[in-house]
Amino acid sequence: MTPPVSLPRLARPVGNDGLLALMRAIPFARLLGVGATLDDEGRVVAQMPFAEHLIGNPRLPALHGGTIGAFLEMTAIAQLIVDMAEPGIPKTIDITIDYLRSGRPRDTFARAIVAKHGRRVANVRVEAWQEDPTRPIATAHGHFMLPPPTEGEAPEA
Predict the structure, then answer these.
(1) Among candidates 147, 53, 138, which has minimal Cα distance to 95?
(2) pTM for the complete prediction?
(3) What is the CATH number of the domain that holds 45?
(4) Quick check: 100 and 89 in contact, CB under 8 A?
(5) Domains in the chain, number
């Protein structure tokens, strides 16, 4: 049995160093080479550098759909972690991915928008692109269960 992943305790607010530590702590993110930074608006911009092992169709060549889907999900979770007032890891309830065009053998980027951040559930939209942010290669819409508030904290109205 694989031991549980020990995630770093992230300071609030989460900065670029915290995002980097988070991505390095997740084995699959390390395998994909995923990194993330915050833009000037405090939004996560994730990057998945191209690597040969990410190719799913060598004839085109095109990135494997599973790597793109995982990248989109990681971006959504990273944005939620940045937005949360308290530390915790959101859990995926469901995620729907629309593959719009082939992911070419080049670096891929993604950005998430939290459409609704409730007390227990958040809805997130994510877009991935390669050279032009206005031409996404894939989009995702996901629902995520948020960690419960710390004991002793009054629930939001």
Answers:
(1) 138
(2) 0.87
(3) 3.10.129.10
(4) no
(5) 1
Range of the domain at 69: 16-145
DSSP conformation class of 31: H
- Could you read off the pLDDT of 15-47 as tens digits, one per residue? 778 888 888 888 999 999 999 999 998 899 999
What does the pLDDT average to over 44-56? 96
Q: How many CB atoms lie within 10 A of CB 11?
A: 11
> 10 Å Cβ neighbour count for 10?
19
Q: Helix and strand tally (H, E) in the chain?
A: 3, 8
Contacts 24+ apart (CB under 8 A), 50-57: 50/105, 50/106, 50/107, 50/108, 55/105, 57/102
Residue 85 lies in a domain: yes
Closest CA to 38 of 5, 86, 82: 82
Give me the helix-helix angle, 16-25 and 65-83, nearest 10°.
140
In Å, what is the CA distance from 28 to each residue of 32, 74, 146?
A: 6, 10, 21
Residue 150 is assigned to a structural domain of this protein: no
End-to-end CA distance of the chain: 42
